[in-house]
Every structure is written in structure tokens, then in C-alpha cells.
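stage 2 :: seqdesign
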């Protein structure tokens, strides 16, 4: 009897990943086989059992799916195969593939699924907004013949006189602009929603967003911080930049420290000398927490286009939608409504000071972040 466990080169965090098992019966008779795979401890799954009948000299394969919720190294134990004949009087145990290691990276599957947004933002799918282009950016692309629907304000009169028919200037989104994902890895980002921490939601979104920005020919970089600067990858538009970002995001982790926004401001001022688009992933649960950090956010926004991305508390939102039946439930609902209202006030407070804001449910983070980026590019704000 031979068996093999085939693992992908790496797992994608928060996505279904396929594991394939192949078993080859080299006996000259049909066998009954029970397969027990020792799945990594992170999954807390101890009931794996697959029963098969394998004809003589035949090979059978099957697969199963695993969904990791945390980045890092996962170790598979033994692949145990118990073999018996049709009488089932005795079983023989075979052991294969001891201690296989696989690394779980930020969600590259989600990144690939959202890859098309870099090519066409006019696709009408659920969750994807059409962006109204307000004016145009001033990066010249070419002169072309006028067709109905072109903006008459872009008519090139010299080219029109030379060719004896209407010609217009065509513009494109400005390219090679520096774009940074700034990830707050402080204790507030440890909060879990649907099994995944806010930090991992932010990391998955940063990877998908960086891929789209690179396809749009912008320079992308990342920065992570808590009580110190953990990671700083300077913006670049090279093809290898996405792999560097993925490796850097793999190592981002959170402790239980308060985030130092004054340190963030000093590092941004020192290292990011050109005006850049800064997508800051953070979270505030109370207005007082925002007020403490607002002076630093305003200082950063003076020299850069800052977008503060923080999270709706979806559990609180669910509480506000329940039908209450007693005083205790009514009190809980009142508190939940106050939390939801505070989030909206925070967004308005940031906007009042000229800071772009995105308040989003965790599960919609990636698509909403990319939409915000496409809107900024379309409006030529950077």
C-alpha cells in the first residue's frame, strides 16, 4: 500500500484550501481502507475519517478543504492508513508523510478574485460601485478623432484645423503616484469578527489593494506600526514589489500595545517626502480615542492625501435590529445604538477636518477600499 498527501505550496488565509490524498493499492485483491489525517492543531479538528474500498492494483484520490484563520506555519502530522480485507478480521496500519509544513499567507485568493477591478471598473456586480468621473486628470495620453459623447472642452483646435475634422485630447489617470497601506497593529486590531481578527482583514485588504494599484501603474508600499514601527516597505512599481509586500505582510503581528500615532507622524514626515495616498487601517471604538489621535491625523493630512479606514461593529449593528421583549434587552439595544451612532460621528468628525474616511463592515473591507481608491483616481484628488 502506498499513500501520499499533496499540499499546495502555501495556504491562503481565510479561504478554502485544497488538500489531496492519493492511495495506491498494490495488493492483488480488493481492500477496505480507513484514512485518518492528522490535521494541524490550529484547526482543532480531531474527527477526520475517510473510508474507502480500493480494487486490486488501483489508485484512488480524494480531497478535502481547510480554511485557516491565522497566518503562520501549520504542521500536518501522520497520514495514517488502516488496511483490511473484506473479512475485516485484522487491520494493518501504514504511516506516511510525517510532519509536513505549510505556511499560511495573506489571502492571495481574494487578491486574484479582485484582480479584474484594475482592468475595468464599470462592471455591474454586487458590491462594486460605478464611479462618476468628475473632470479629468491632466496627464496627456493622445490626440484622437472626436466621437459623439466626448467632452467638447477637450477639443484640440490646432489639430482640428490641420486635419479638417474634429480632434480631441485624451487624458488618462495619473500614473506612478506613491500609494501606501498603513496598518495599525495595536491592541484594538486584535478584535475578532467571524473568526478573523481586524488585523488580518486589514492585511488581506492591503494585499488585494496593492495588486490593483500596481496594475494601475502606481507605486505601492506598506507600513505597519503599534508602539514602534514594525515594517516599512518603500513604494515601488517594480513587478517584484507584490512578492515583497506579501512577505512583509506575512510577518506583521499584533501585540497588546497602544498604537503610537505621534511615532507614525514622525516616520511619515521623515521617510515619505513626496505627496502620497495613505490608506490607514485602524479602529476607534469611542470618540475620545479618536480625539486623542486627531491632531496627528490632521498633521499627516497636511502633506498627504489621508484615507482613514475603520470598522463598523457588526455585532452591535445586529443588536440594534433585534425585537426586544424585556427591559434588559432594551438596555442592551440602547447601548448598541449609541456605539453605532458614535461610529458615524467619528466619520463626520474626520471629514470635517478634510480627512477622507471609509467606515466599513470587516467582510466588505477589500472591495470598499478598492472602490475608494478608484474614486480618488477618477476624481484626480492626489
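stage 2 :: out
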Amino acid at each position: 500500500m502506498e499513500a501520499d498527501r499533496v499540499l499546495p505550496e502555501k495556504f491562503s488565509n481565510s479561504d478554502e484550501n485544497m488538500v489531496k490524498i492519493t492511495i495506491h493499492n498494490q495488493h492483488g485483491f480488493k481492500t477496505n481502507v480507513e484514512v485518518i489525517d492528522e490535521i494541524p492543531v490550529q484547526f482543532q479538528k480531531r474527527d477526520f475519517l475517510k473510508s474507502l474500498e480500493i480494487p486490486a492494483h488501483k489508485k484512488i484520490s480524494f480531497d478535502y478543504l481547510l480554511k485557516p484563520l491565522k497566518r503562520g506555519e501549520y504542521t500536518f502530522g501522520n497520514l495514517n492508513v488502516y488496511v483490511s480485507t473484506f473479512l475485516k478480521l485484522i487491520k494493518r496500519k501504514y504511516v506516511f508523510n510525517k510532519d509536513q509544513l505549510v505556511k499560511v499567507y495573506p489571502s492571495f485568493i481574494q487578491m486574484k478574485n479582485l484582480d479584474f477591478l484594475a482592468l475595468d471598473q464599470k462592471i455591474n456586480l454586487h458590491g462594486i460601485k460605478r464611479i462618476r468621473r468628475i473632470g479629468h486628470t491632466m496627464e496627456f495620453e493622445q490626440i484622437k478623432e472626436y466621437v459623439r459623447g466626448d467632452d467638447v472642452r477637450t477639443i484640440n483646435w490646432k489639430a482640428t484645423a490641420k486635419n479638417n475634422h474634429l480632434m480631441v485630447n485624451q487624458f488618462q489617470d495619473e500614473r506612478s503616484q506613491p500609494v501606501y497601506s498603513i496598518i495599525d497593529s495595536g491592541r484594538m486590531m486584535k478584535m475578532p469578527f467571524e473568526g478573523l481578527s481586524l488585523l488580518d482583514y486589514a492585511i488581506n485588504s492591503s494585499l488585494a489593494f496593492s495588486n490593483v494599484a500596481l496594475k494601475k501603474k502606481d507605486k505601492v508600499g506598506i507600513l505597519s506600526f503599534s508602539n514602534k514601527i514594525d515594517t516599512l516597505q518603500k513604494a515601488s512599481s517594480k513587478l517584484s514589489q507584490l512578492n515583497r509586500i506579501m512577505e512583509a505582510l506575512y510577518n506583521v503581528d499584533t501585540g497588546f500595545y497602544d498604537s503610537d500615532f505621534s511615532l507614525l507622524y514622525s516616520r511619515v514626515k521623515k521617510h515619505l517626502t513626496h505627496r502620497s495616498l495613505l490608506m490607514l487601517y485602524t479602529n476607534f471604538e469611542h470618540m475620545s480615542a479618536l480625539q486623542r489621535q486627531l491632531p496627528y491625523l490632521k498633521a499627516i493630512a497636511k502633506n498627504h492625501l489621508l484615507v482613514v479606514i475603520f470598522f463598523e461593529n457588526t455585532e452591535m449593528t445586529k443588536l440594534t435590529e433585534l425585537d426586544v421583549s424585556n427591559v434588559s434587552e432594551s438596555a442592551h439595544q440602547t447601548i448598541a445604538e449609541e456605539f453605532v451612532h458614535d461610529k458615524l460621528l467619528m466619520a463626520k468628525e474626520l471629514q470635517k477636518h478634510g480627512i477622507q474616511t471609509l467606515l466599513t463592515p470587516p467582510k466588505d473591507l477589500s472591495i470598499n477600499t478598492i472602490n475608494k481608491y478608484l474614486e480618488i483616481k477618477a476624481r484626480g484628488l492626489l
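stage 3 :: structure notes
- Confidence is low (pLDDT under 50) at residues 121-126, 130-136.
- Residues 327-352 form the longest helix (26 residues).
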